[in-house]
């Protein structure tokens, strides 16, 4: 596989998943700290207070990513670290990111920062169900623009707002653990409003930053040729794609989604759509797998309009977290989106696999991840070659880390982390990527 010389190669992480330093430098609690403290929420009863201790080990981690050949790094800023309870700058927290940015600069690595990767400050009353949170996000965006903006060439407002909205407020498996369909749609609206207000606020401070958003679009295939299954798959895509992409382009939600928000519709004000539809410099797309849906099989699912069918591990190749390995889906989902929306230039901001292979005799032979990356990058090369405007790829993730409700039981890193000693061991997949990136660093366009 070959890529253009200008194609950007990076790795991705998120603050809550790697930083630790949970009570240091004036950091406030987030809804994920609260969620972890509730019994039964996290599979291994763990939390993010130490995680990969990146808060202290960032020099080593940046040196490691540089030695592996990554030239781009996508990370998130913890809102709870940089804004105090009065809404003012917390310089101790900002200094952590200044030191991180210094390290990246010294190693010639370009930062790509995400402002919100799910770790909402706990003290924001009502969270994403309160419209005011969207305004507080805009204040936070302006603060980061003022304090760090001169060092950040590329910034995404939100990461995967679908997860915050629906996993957090409908399914309830993510913080804050609410189970209320109408509320989840209102949260989705407030998240997109926050995105729009955040872009406006950032641009009012600086105009030289490339701004975008990171989504995890859905590719949902019907379980059978029955029309009811096709309709179910369509509804799953409307929820995951149209609820987020339509507002970005000033388009109203589909009627099916408007119907599902019910009485909460009054939370959507005239004029909100125009705020959501700020011009974008880029879009980040995260892709892991596809899903398969059938007509709803329970009362609860009837509200959503679909039931997901779990992939059959006897029939399909799965990663350790149970997700189907479906490389052609990367191409299909991007092509589907391009048919419907005028997307700006695309970066694949996450792609990767859970492969829990451990370290044996000093090496980690993560063959499932290696094959996953090979097959997905083969698709990607063909897409770029076919002229789809994809400018770069960030593997998820640099390090094994806190995998949300799965705790530390699922490992997504190309670098193994021994949580007892915090030792980092690059896996076979990291070495393979290193060789690929090296080849392309020296290949003329
Ligand atoms: C995401 C998540 C990551 C997850 C990864 C694997 O943006 O989807 O940001 O935090 O760890 O997706 O589930």
Question: Could you please describe the fold and organization of this structure?
Answer:
- The protein is of the alpha/beta class.
- Helix content is 41%, strand content 14%.
- The chain has helices at 15-18, 31-37, 54-68, 79-82, 91-106, 132-148, 161-169, 181-205, 227-248, 255-260, 272-276, 299-304, 328-340, 367-385, 428-441; strands spanning 8-12, 72-76, 110-116, 154-159, 210-215, 220-222, 282-286, 291-294, 307-308, 346-350, 390-396, 415-418, 423-426.
- The strands form three sheets. An eight-stranded parallel β-barrel has the order 1-2-3-4-5-7-10-11.
- It is globular and about 55 Å long.
- The two termini are 14 Å apart.
- The mean pLDDT is 98.
Q: What is the mean predicted local confidence, pLDDT?
A: 98
Major pleated sheet: 8 strands, parallel, barrel
> What separation lies between the terminal Cα atoms?
14 Å
Strand order of the largest sheet: 1-2-3-4-5-7-10-11
Brief summary:
This protein has 445 residues and is α/β, with parallel strands linked by helices.
Q: Can you tag this structure with a few keywords?
A:
13 strands; globular; 445 residues; binds D-gluconic acid
Topology of helices and strands:
Elements: E1 8-12, H1 15-18, H2 31-37, H3 54-68, E2 72-76, H4 79-82, H5 91-106, E3 110-116, H6 132-148, E4 154-159, H7 161-169, H8 181-205, E5 210-215, E6 220-222, H9 227-248, H10 255-260, H11 272-276, E7 282-286, E8 291-294, H12 299-304, E9 307-308, H13 328-340, E10 346-350, H14 367-385, E11 390-396, E12 415-418, E13 423-426, H15 428-441
Parallel strand pairs: 1-2, 1-11, 2-3, 3-4, 4-5, 5-7, 6-8, 7-10, 10-11
Antiparallel strand pairs: 8-9, 12-13
The structure holds D-gluconic acid (GCO).
D-gluconic acid binds near residues 17, 160, 350, 396 and 412.
């Amino acid at each position: 596989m070959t890529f253009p010389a200008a194609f950007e190669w990076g790795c991705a992480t998120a603050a809550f998943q790697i930083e630790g330093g949970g009570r240091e430098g004036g950091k406030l609690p987030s809804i994920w700290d609260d969620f972890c403290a509730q019994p039964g929420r996290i599979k291994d009863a763990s939390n993010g207070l130490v995680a990969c201790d990146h808060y202290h080990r960032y020099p080593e981690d940046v040196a490691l990513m540089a030695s592996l050949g990554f030239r781009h790094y996508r990370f998130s800023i913890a809102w709870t670290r940089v804004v105090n309870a009065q809404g003012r700058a917390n310089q101790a927290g900002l200094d952590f990111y200044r030191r991180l940015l210094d390290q990246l600069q010294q190693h010639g690595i370009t930062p790509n920062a995400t402002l919100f990767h799910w770790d909402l400050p706990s003290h924001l009353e009502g969270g994403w169900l309160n419209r005011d949170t969207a305004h507080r996000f805009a204040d936070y965006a302006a603060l980061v623009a003022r304090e760090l903006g001169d060092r950040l060439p590329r910034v995404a407002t939100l990461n995967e707002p679908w997860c915050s909205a629906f996993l957090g407020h409908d399914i309830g498996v993510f913080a804050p653990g609410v189970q209320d369909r109408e509320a989840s749609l209102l949260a989705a609206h407030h998240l997109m409003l926050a995105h729009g207000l955040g872009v406006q606020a950032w641009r009012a401070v600086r105009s030289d930053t490339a701004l975008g958003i990171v989504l995890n679009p859905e590719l949902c295939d019907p379980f059978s040729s029955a029309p009811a299954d096709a309709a179910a798959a369509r509804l799953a895509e409307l929820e995951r794609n149209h609820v987020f992409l339509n507002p970005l382009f000033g388009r109203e939600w589909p009627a099916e989604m408007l119907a599902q928000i019910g009485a909460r519709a009054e939370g959507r004000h005239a004029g909100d759509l125009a705020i959501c539809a700020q011009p974008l410099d880029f879009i980040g797309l995260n892709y892991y797998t596809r899903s398969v849906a059938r007509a709803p099989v329970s009362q609860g699912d009837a509200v959503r309009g679909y039931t997901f069918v779990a992939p059959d591990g006897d029939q399909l190749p799965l990663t350790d977290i149970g997700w189907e390995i479906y490389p052609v889906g990367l191409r299909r989902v991007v092509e589907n989106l391009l048919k419907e929306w005028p997307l700006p230039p695309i970066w694949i901001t996450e792609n990767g696999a859970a492969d829990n292979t451990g370290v044996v005799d000093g090496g980690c032979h993560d063959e499932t991840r290696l094959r996953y990356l090979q097959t997905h990058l083969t698709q990607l090369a063909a897409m770029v070659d076919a002229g789809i405007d994809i400018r770069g790829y960030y593997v998820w993730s640099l390090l094994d880390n806190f995998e949300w409700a799965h705790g530390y039981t699922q490992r997504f890193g190309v670098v193994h982390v021994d949580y007892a000693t915090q030792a980092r061991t690059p896996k076979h997949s990291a070495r393979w990527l290193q060789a690929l990136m090296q080849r392309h660093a020296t290949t003329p366009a």
